[in-house]
Amino acid sequence: MTTEHEPNGLIGASLKRVEDPPLITGKGCYVDDINLPGMLHLAFQRSPYPHAKILSIDVGKAKTMPGVEAVITGNDISEKLNLSSSQVLPKMKIPPHPVLARGAVHCVGAPVAAVVAKTRAQAEDAANSIDVEYEALPGVSNAEAALEPGAPLAREEIDGNICYTMVKNGGDVDKAFAIADHIFTMHIASPRQVALAMEPRGIVASPDPFGKNLTLWLSTQGPHRARAEIANTLGFPEHKIHLIAPDVGGGFGSKGPVYREDIVACHLALKLRKPIKWVATRSEDFITTIQGRDQAMTSEMALRKDGKILGLKVKVVANLGAYLHSSTAGPPQRMLGMACGSYQIKDCRVEIVAVFTNTCPTGPYRGAGRPESVLNIERLLDKAAAVLGMDRLEIRRKNFIQPDQFPYTTGTGVEYDSGDYEKPLREALKMSNYDDLLRQRDERRKRGELVGVGFSTFVEPSGGAGFESGTVRVERTGEITVLTGSSSHGQGHETSWAQIAAELMKTSMDHVTILHGDTHVSQQGTGTFGSRSAVVGGGALAIAAERVIEKGKRIAAHLVEAAPEDLVQSDGGFAVKGVPDKTISWRQIAGAAYSGRVPEGMEIGLQETAFFDPKREAWGFGTHVALVSIDRDTGKFTIERLVLVDDCGVVINPMIVEGQIHGGVAQGLGEAMREQMLYSDDGQVQTGTFMNYAIMRAADMPPMILGETITPNPFNPLGVKGVGECGTNGAPPSVANALMDALAPLGIEHVDMPYTAPKLWALIRNAERKN
Amino acid sequence: MFPASFAYVAARSVEEALELMVKHGEEGKLLAGGHSLIPAMKLRLQSPRTLIDLGTVPGLRGVRVDGDHLVIGALTVHTDVASSELVRKHLLGLADATSVIGDIQVRNRGTIGGSVAHADPAADLPVILTALNASFTVQSLSGSRSIAVDDFFTDFFTTAMNSDEILTEIHVPIPATGTGSAYAKLPHPASGYVVVSAGALIARQASGSCTAARVAIGGLGTGPLRAVATELELQGKPLTPQIIAAAAAKAAEETEPVEDSYAGVEYKCHVATVYARKAIEAAVERVKS
């Protein structure tokens, strides 16, 4: 297999997405667009308390209301209807996660009762009429506070609030600290963010008349994994579930796991033998869909006076929320692999303390632990430079892992497969006119302005979590059908996959159809998350295509009575070497393949399936540079320039890659500038609507200047690396470093995101009062 | 996000709407543009049994001159106020405010009367209408009366209107020559509502000194507040940047703002002085032009 492609080929072409016309003209088909005859609607009564004992539930009125077909509470269903979490560690504590609360609720929004009615309005009215009597219990929302002695217990079933702890030691960190010239500490708390996909979560569950088969339309990032989780939870045969992910309006990690409402919908559909729909309102989505970040990192760094980083200790206190979804325990563990960033630090210790609180469960959100890791190490590097009085570029260059050191095993035992970190750094400095930015900053500072320049150099692992599958079928017509286990929820698979298949098969994109998001169409699959689709799904597709090409070539050779070695690929099929006019089209080859005119011993048909597991992650990298200013009068923070240079290896479609970067940057800058899900100390929701949760809007975005370097990845068929998360990984730390640079003249050393105007204003005013 | 069940009645006249209000009492609610009421109903913060729609009542829209006043019909939507030739000629401060309410959809549907009667402490219109010294015509089955803006906003979401009254017209004095008005707002990053805002109406003599000033501040209290200390500080003085800054610095005096999840008391008081200055400076600038 080759990592090279012809210039001007389809791989690398900036093409408009073929899936967009229906999506942007309101002609898409999302879960809420699925309407089945006799379909019923589901609604929930939810806890208004962060933590409470349920004393009684009165469903009497709801049962008599118009259109109501069923009302259930946690007492009406088996306790086996409980969402499970993977046991990441043997000692990890997994408290119950019943699909409807049983005896107690542990965060606001926990479902307490469910109503099925003929219309949505009837279901909502009846759910609203259910009277629940609670006894409020003390709650805790902050993970570090939850570790304090005497803190309220978030989950009364377990002793203490710790779900798990994990420690990874590399080298001899104590020795490194003993011989260090300088040691400093830093504490960073990353704000909690809400995923807020444009399409809220939703499901339609439709059983057959005998309850033997179940068809589901689910807004999910991974149809096969969701099906397995639903089957396990329900105790229903997995292969009897047909799960379809129709158009999916975003996920960002939050639509990976299965949720309580999904199971309740399936359970009631099977019980009533009728199709049931549930689609979250925005209010429900806000408080029940897994949220991201909310990790507090306490670090210590040991330095030699020449700038060499000797050792690093990081302790992560991660807020898991009240319940464990299948993916909740994962994100904090990214720090184990990424704590050392792009730098040679062999002596290190990383400790994770994962904590229960009375808040919405957390889980992967665009970056899933990567942004926290990058923010931590990049702030540490800037502070190390300040401690040593060294240039911020110089300390990075001095400690970078060098190109000839790959594959490089970090202090925490994770292998970075490939890299050349100087390349994007150089490019970003050039594109941003870095020296000129510094001059501008200094001049403006003399005029009393608060201006800062910052950057981050980062790594971005992609393509993990196992296999993906791909099937390439040449139809009788010579057209190509691709079945992929990797489903799209906005990534543009239908375009990128067609570009890959058409380029490899030397055919037109119009002749390629991509089928995805359906467990009965594609064999098996893992799903779309962690920037893995192009690496793993694209890789599987490429391998399957190569197999079909190989078989096609042998059939073509058979047809023209030549040796396969004498054939070369040409437009639309093959040609005989040296005789370009003598061509055999895919249509001719397919005709032969399906009518048995194949070489002796060859199986008929022209379809190949590949399962690809790269077994190692593809580590992308980049450098982001920011110029920022702060208005002293109001604390308003402005990103004046943002230069983003990413190396994601071979680029399949530059326009889609740019879109991924734009979207990631928007969510990353949301974290940096505006977004934070706030809870009161005991867990009451304070920012549960767009009225008080400040999501980034298009008009809030700064201008972005994008650049790239291309270092093909040597370990997958296409040479690609993931790019979906670089915006959330690299941009916020660059902005953080720029902000801290702007505040440095005032002697301010740290402030946590988001950098809201009131927060910055108070900080500046206090610093000025002190000075 | 689904309102409780309700009945809907479209009124054909103010009189009919008033009769419907009497008939439905506390279970009825007037509907104008609906851009505050409908979201509140969808969140079930309000669950009126009957909505009495004023949208079908003729004669409540538009801007006209009546002597030395501009008269704005209560059902005039924000976009129409902002783009009205009369408003742009005489009351640029009102054009400022109606241009920054919510988003385009809100401005195309939301009405001036709805916003005023709702009396949201974080709304724009109460602030600028206070600076512009507006008055409100309210009608009941027993007749109509006028309420001065300084007496109108009595508490959070509460006005001096009685429950049997409908707001029909907003009267704003047309400022004399040599007068300018402006509105400046620090919006909440999520909602776009007022964190702090300021409206100013400034009259200036040819000599350059201030002959009259009305300055109102939003976001610091239960409704718009007159910045009396600021007004006094400007009175009779030359409108130099220093004088304006000194006057604006008093804009938050004797206010008692409340901390919220976005901003604290000190910040609100400080930015009130910043936005008071911005509004006064912009109003003065408009006197010149």
How would you sum up this structure, described in words?
- Chain A has 771 residues and is of the alpha+beta class.
- Chain A has three domains: 34-137 and 198-250 and 255-288, Aldehyde Oxidoreductase, domain 3 (Alpha-Beta Complex), CATH 3.90.1170.50; 291-463 and 616-770, 2-Layer Sandwich (Aldehyde Oxidoreductase, domain 4), CATH 3.30.365; 465-612, Aldehyde Oxidoreductase, domain 4.
- Chain A has 19 helices and 30 strands.
- In chain A, helix 10 (370-388) packs parallel to helix 18 (726-743), helix 14 packs parallel to helix 15 and helix 15 (533-560) crosses helix 16 (586-595).
- The relative contact order of chain A is 0.13.
- The model of chain A is unreliable at 1-7 (pLDDT under 50).
- Chain B is α+β, with helices and mostly antiparallel strands and 289 residues long.
- Chain B has three domains: 7-53, Uridine Diphospho-n-acetylenolpyruvylglucosamine Reductase, domain 2; 63-173, Uridine Diphospho-n-acetylenolpyruvylglucosamine Reductase, domain 3 (2-Layer Sandwich); 179-288, Enolase-like, domain 1 (2-Layer Sandwich).
- Chain B is built from twelve helices and 14 strands.
- A five-stranded antiparallel β-sheet of chain B has the order 4-5-10-6-7. Chain B has a four-stranded antiparallel β-sheet with strand order 11-12-13-14, with helices on both faces.
- Chain A binds chain B through residues 120-121, 124-125, 128, 281-284, 633-635, 674, 678, 686-687, 689-695, 700, 756-758, 761-762, 765, and chain B through 1-2, 4-5, 43-44, 186, 188-191, 193, 261-264, 266-267, 270-271, 274.
